[in-house]
Amino acid sequence: MIYIGVTGWGDHDIYHQGVAVRDKLKEYAAHFPTVEVDASFYAVQPARNVEKWVKDTPADFRFVVKAYQGMTGHQRGEIPFSSKEEMFDAFKVSLTPYVESGKLAMVLFQFPPWFDCKKENVAYLRYCRDKMDGYPVALEFRNQSWFSAKFRAQTLRFMEAEGWIHSICDEPQVGEGSIPTVLKATDKEKTLVRMHGRNTAAWMKPNGKNWREVRYLYRYNKEELLEWKENILKLQNETKDIYVLFNNNSGGDAAGNAKEFIQLMDIRYEGLAAKQLDLF
Fold first, then answer.
1. Are 16 and 6 spatial neighbours (Cβ–Cβ below 8 Å)?
2. What PANTHER family does this protein map onto (predicted)?
3. Residue 194 located in a structural domain
4. Is the CB of residue 138 less than 8 Å from the CB of residue 108?
5. Which of 46, 91, 254, 268 shows the smallest number of beta carbons within 10 Å?
6. Is the pLDDT of residue 278 over 60?
7. Structural domain includes residue 270
8. Three-state SS across 139-193?
9. What phi and psi, each to the nearest 5 degrees, are found at residue 239?
10. d(CA 206, CA 15)
11. Total domains in the fold of the chain
């Protein structure tokens, strides 16, 4: 199956007027069968939050949960754990409602641009996979060295051998901090595709004002989406389920592009939540 959605459910133009923040996921689930949980990157989520999200979505809905920042070495601000073991254990406890409901698609480990291909980082990936034993985990790099001519084949073999789901990226190709689109599944059951946009001018400006917002300011045109339709059809020969998440939402384009891509893929989802009626 092909699951198409966006990253986060807070800021999109799909909601009827006046919808409360607490009800947005319910309405989001009337449009898409999957979502990426970004809140888990900034803080390990309390059980009450995850239990509500699980309750607010239909039985066939699936969550891609982003790994907590301390687990991937981002560490923006103070990490409120005394050890890595405590941090991983707390994060796994937070996954319990997803797992028990059958709604966990995967946990996404997205590593920062300075996480390059070297021995100690390979060892840390093994550590992460061991700590997440029993959970489906996806791996996304932000340093081009992993897919350089020297290491590409080895990286893919490593991911397959260690049980990592490949998070395939579409993004600008500008420098070491950009990853090429490598159309190779490393897991026969699941593959993740994340659409970051192609805003080349803003991609490599980490010191600019509001750079995180600006870099994802991009709307895919029909020709680009048709290109990805062909890519997805190829990947279907290698993997059972494909999750496609649009992350180009700085200008509110992610949901529109996701809906357009659903149409281009000629997909009719069943089992979505009932849409809210905006009578006024």
1. no
2. UNCHARACTERIZED PROTEIN YECE (PTHR30348), UPF0759 PROTEIN YUNF (PTHR30348:SF13)
3. yes
4. yes
5. 268
6. no
7. no
8. EECCCHHHHCCCCHHHHHHHHHHHCEEEEEEECCCCCCCCCCCCCCCCCCCEEEE
9. -150, 150
10. 32
11. 1
- Those residues whose C-beta lies under 8 Å from the C-beta of residue 49, and which sit 6 or more positions away, are 39
pLDDT digits (tens, 9 = 90+) for 48-88: 999 999 999 999 999 999 999 999 988 766 678 889 999 99
Which residue type occupies 223?
E
Q: Are 198 and 216 in contact (CB under 8 A)?
A: no
The rounded distance, in Å, linking the Cα atoms of 229 and 193 is 12
Cα 217 to Cα 78, 125, 147, 247: the distances in Å are: 29, 31, 25, 9
Q: State pTM to two decimals.
A: 0.94
pLDDT tens digit string along 172-189? 988 888 899 999 999 999
What six digits make up the tokens of 50? 């995850």
Structural contact between residues 10 and 27, judged by C-beta atoms closer than 8 angstroms: no
Q: Which two tokens stand for residue 61?
A: 């809905």
Residue 194 CA neighbour count, 13 Å, CB half: 27
Q: What percent of the chain has pLDDT over 70?
A: 93
pLDDT over 60 at 209, yes or no? no
Six token digits for residue 115: 């996480």
DSSP 80: -
Q: 7-11 long-range contacts, Cβ below 8 Å, gap at least 24?
A: 7/35, 7/36, 7/38, 7/194, 7/245, 7/246, 7/247, 7/249, 7/254, 8/35, 8/36, 8/37, 8/38, 8/249, 9/35, 11/249, 11/252
Cα separation of 132 and 121, whole Å?
Answer: 16
Q: What is the chain's length?
A: 280
Where would I find the beta strands (DSSP E) of 8-134?
34-37, 62-66, 104-110
Cβ atoms of residues 246 and 6 within 8 Å: yes
Residue 107 structure tokens: 């946990």
CATH of the domain at 41: 3.20.20.410
Two tokens, residue 144: 């081009």
